[in-house]
């Protein structure tokens, strides 16, 4: 395992960066898209709520691989050529946004609106109430699930391997197919995934405990 | 302290497990003689493509894979094991075939595999069984009759990423620009939608496309030599020899020519090309 | 339009449904295995047996933080390197079970933990044994809490079976690829069919759990 890490460090390192890059881009993208759909879901207009609901239900019940392959195979046939990294990141964004929409919706619904009014009547300005009362709570509610979503993103970004997205899994497959030391290659790749996910996972658990 | 021990102990245990596993990772599976075990079981397991027209394509009606590679594999099996010998087929892709051979899931690969020096470091090849080479596919009635006709400014050639096709275009038609797409299906769709003047890859693959859409034809024959071979694990000399012997027998008896005609006889533009 | 009619010929639909059947079979077997194994591991981690629980917890954390695809590759391409040669179906079920068991174990553990610890003490001080408390007080509440995350985990499992197309498991995704490999005009119709079929199966599972949930609540 060590020899794989040492001899193929340049490929693995670049794969690690692509994995991280795709995950970060998809997190940002899905936060934006997910928040939009979360607000649609709690809209006062029924048909807007229905649109939000349909989007979330569709993309939560279709495999990420199908969504990713769709962007990789179908989009170029209709419009322009996309590379694997772009297709993969778009697929990840859309897929994750459905889950983030649910998280954000739950977060909004959980913060009690009465607290804002109480703070205001105690003489705090809107900004003060927002900064000191509402925002800290909203963060406590949304950060742990978002952290977990990011861990999921890092793991899920391995589908980029299907579309030649130059991620860690893709590089791992290339190394495995040139060295034929498959078991050690995949152990090394696994170790690198853990370097990304395990500390974050423990940190999230620590936060959850602390904020509980 | 106790907590520390509780945390570290599992880690140490796991680490030693991993080291133990990597220690025995080099155990070779191909020590045994594949030919002998195949003779004992009276069956050869072949790795074949299931998504390549003419060579190995799944027939959805019968759930059987059909193609030139399949028929060759069946015939070679009969040559090696006798009339009752059974050919088993396992589906492979370009990226899984060598690992599966190395791992022993399959005994041999017959899956549109070009004999290349790079691959020959990893597997042993039989003598060529199909004279593949790079060619071009164009719309019927196109002015382009061979690769050199593409050597003008503004010519667009479609190729597939990760293959050597693009390099060869630069050699034969340096003025043309190459647009690389991610797979054959995409490249063919791009040609159909007019995004390029020609599509280039192995002639074998192009013949299949031409058969799917008769409005497109292979012109000019192959301009490189990249013959397909049958791959066997390294150190399996008896198996490689048996395969070579079988193919040569088939060529002598005319069975090889019969299979070639069966699959490629109707393909427009199929040049003899030494096949 | 003609492409769609041609693509949805009875032959192709039947072939897709054959793939769907494999998907359902593999999912069902993996769900049962990972429910049993994950449940046991989750309990083992919760009850806190010295060293053993910590070890189990650590292994679970490691597996949970790896991509399933990696575990699948390791099973199918890595294990043969040390002498174990699983076929595609065995490898798929094994990899899914390993990964999903770890996910299930975590759900079970945090589900039990989320039930107020004060309840255990209250019940014990009322004269109930540890086992009785577990069986009658803690577990029924915990199970109710676990059902939603367990169901979404199993929906994930069904979706994740599509990854096994890479080891050429003849499931839904693979069969769709075979069909559009034969005719490039079938790509779009096949993706539409994939989306619809996966959606039906996954949505049916969450719908079923909601119905069960309502029955249990009533």
Automatic annotation (TrEMBL), chain A:
CDD domains recorded: TM_PBP2 (cd06261)
Cross-referenced NCBIfam families: HEQRo_perm_3TM (TIGR01726)
InterPro entries: AA_ABC_transptr_permease_3TM, ArtM/GltK/GlnP/TcyL/YhdX-like, MetI-like, MetI-like_sf
Pfam families given in the database record: BPD_transp_1
PANTHER family, A to Z: GLUTAMINE ABC TRANSPORTER PERMEASE PROTEIN GLNM-RELATED, MEMBRANE COMPONENT OF AMINO ACID ABC TRANSPORTER
Residue stretches making up the ABC transmembrane type-1 domain: 16-204
Membrane topology according to the record: Multi-pass membrane protein
Cellular localisation: Cell membrane
Protein family according to the UniProt entry: Belongs to the binding-protein-dependent transport system permease family.
Record-annotated membrane-spanning stretches: 12-40, 61-79, 186-207
Name used for this protein in its record: Amino acid ABC transporter permease
Organism listed in the record: Loigolactobacillus zhaoyuanensis
Keywords: Cell membrane, Membrane, Transmembrane, Transmembrane helix, Transport
TrEMBL record, chain B:
Signal peptide: 1-21
Domain annotation Ionotropic glutamate receptor C-terminal: ranges: 52-266
UniProt keywords, alphabetically: Signal, Transport
Similarity section: Belongs to the bacterial solute-binding protein 3 family.
Domain Solute-binding protein family 3/N-terminal: 43-267
Protein name, entry field: Transporter substrate-binding domain-containing protein
UniProt keyword Zinc-finger present: no
PROSITE patterns: PROKAR_LIPOPROTEIN (PS51257)
TrEMBL record, chain C:
Residue intervals of the ABC transmembrane type-1 domain: 20-209
PANTHER family cross-referenced by the UniProt entry: INNER MEMBRANE AMINO-ACID ABC TRANSPORTER PERMEASE PROTEIN YHDY, MEMBRANE COMPONENT OF AMINO ACID ABC TRANSPORTER
UniProt family annotation: Belongs to the binding-protein-dependent transport system permease family.
Pfam family, one: BPD_transp_1
Membrane topology reported for the UniProt record: Multi-pass membrane protein
Subcellular localization(s) per the UniProt record: Cell membrane
UniProt keyword annotation of NADP present: no
Membrane-spanning intervals of the chain: 20-44, 51-76, 186-208
Residue ranges of coiled coil: none
NCBIfam families in the cross-refs: HEQRo_perm_3TM (TIGR01726)
Protein name: Amino acid ABC transporter permease
Keywords from the UniProt entry: Cell membrane, Membrane, Transmembrane, Transmembrane helix, Transport
């Amino acid at each position: 395992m060590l020899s794989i890490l040492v001899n193929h460090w340049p490929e693995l390192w670049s794969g690690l960066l692509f994995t991280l890059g795709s995950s970060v881009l998809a997190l940002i993208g899905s936060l934006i898209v997910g928040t939009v759909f979360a607000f649609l879901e709690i809209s006062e207009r029924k048909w807007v709520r229905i649109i939000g609901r349909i989007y979330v239900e569709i993309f939560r019940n279709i495999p990420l691989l199908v969504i990713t392959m769709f962007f990789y195979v179908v989009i170029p046939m209709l419009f322009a050529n996309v590379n694997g990294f772009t297709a993969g990141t778009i697929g990840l964004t859309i897929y994750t946004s459905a889950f983030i929409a649910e998280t954000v919706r739950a977060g909004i619904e959980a913060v009690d609106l009465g607290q804002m009014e109480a703070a205001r009547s105690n003489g705090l300005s809107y900004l003060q109430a927002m900064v000191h009362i509402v925002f800290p709570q909203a963060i406590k509610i949304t950060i742990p699930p978002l952290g977990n979503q990011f861990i999921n993103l890092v793991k899920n970004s391995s589908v980029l391997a299907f579309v030649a997205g130059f991620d860690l899994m893709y590089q791992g497959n290339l190394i495995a197919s040139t060295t034929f030391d498959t078991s050690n290659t995949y152990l090394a790749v696994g170790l690198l995934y853990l370097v990304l996910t395990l500390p974050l996972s423990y940190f999230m658990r620590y936060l959850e405990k602390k904020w509980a | 302290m106790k907590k520390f021990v509780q945390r570290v102990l599992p880690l140490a245990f796991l680490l030693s497990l991993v080291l133990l596993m990597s220690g025995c990772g080099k155990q070779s599976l191909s020590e045994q003689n594949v030919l002998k075990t195949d003779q004992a079981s009276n069956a050869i397991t072949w790795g074949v493509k299931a998504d390549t027209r003419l060579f190995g394509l799944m027939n959805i009606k019968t759930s059987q894979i059909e193609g030139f590679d399949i028929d060759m594999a069946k015939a070679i099996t009969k040559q090696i094991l006798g009339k009752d010998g059974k050919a088993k087929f396992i589906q492979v892709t370009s990226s899984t075939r060598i690992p599966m051979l190395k791992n022993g899931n399959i005994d041999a690969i017959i899956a549109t595999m070009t004999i290349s020096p790079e691959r020959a470091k990893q597997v042993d090849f039989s003598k060529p069984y199909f004279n593949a080479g790079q060619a071009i596919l164009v719309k019927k009635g196109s002015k382009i009759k061979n690769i050199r006709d593409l050597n003008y400014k503004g010519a667009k050639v479609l190729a597939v990423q990760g293959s050597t096709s693009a390099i060869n275009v630069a050699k034969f038609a340096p003025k043309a620009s190459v647009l690389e797409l991610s797979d054959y299906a995409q490249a063919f769709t791009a040609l159909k939608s007019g995004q390029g003047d020609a599509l280039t890859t192995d002639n074998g693959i192009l013949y299949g496309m031409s058969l799917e859409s008769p409005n497109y034809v292979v012109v000019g024959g192959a301009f490189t030599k990249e013959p397909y071979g049958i791959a066997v694990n390294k150190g399996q000399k008896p198996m490689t020899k048996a395969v070579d012997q079988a193919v040569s027998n088939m060529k002598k008896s005319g069975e090889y020519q019969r299979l070639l005609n069966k699959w490629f006889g109707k393909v427009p533009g199929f040049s003899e090309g030494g096949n | 339009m003609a492409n769609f009619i041609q693509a949805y010929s009875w032959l192709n639909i039947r072939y897709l449904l054959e793939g769907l059947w494999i998907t359902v079979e593999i999912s069902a077997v993996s769900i049962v295995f990972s429910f049993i194994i994950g449940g046991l591991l989750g309990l083992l981690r919760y009850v806190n047996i010295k060293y053993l629980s910590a070890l189990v917890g650590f292994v679970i954390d490691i597996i949970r933080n790896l991509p399933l695809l990696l575990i699948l590759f390791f099973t199918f391409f890595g294990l043969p390197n040390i002498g174990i040669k699983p076929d595609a179906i065995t490898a798929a079920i094994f990899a899914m079970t390993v990964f999903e068991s770890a996910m299930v174990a975590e759900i079970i553990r945090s589900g039990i933990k989320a039930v107020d610890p004060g309840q255990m003490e209250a019940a014990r001080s009322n004269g109930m044994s540890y086992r009785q408390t577990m069986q009658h007080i803690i577990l029924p509440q915990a199970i109710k809490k676990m059902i939603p995350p367990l169901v979404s985990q199993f929906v994930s499992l069904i979706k994740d079976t599509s990854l096994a197309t890479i080891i050429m498991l003849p499931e839904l995704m693979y069969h769709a690829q075979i069909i559009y490999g034969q005719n490039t005009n079938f790509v779009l119709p096949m993706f539409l069919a994939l989306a619809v079929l996966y959606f039906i199966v996954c949505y049916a599972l969450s719908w079923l759990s909601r119905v069960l949930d309502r029955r249990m609540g009533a």
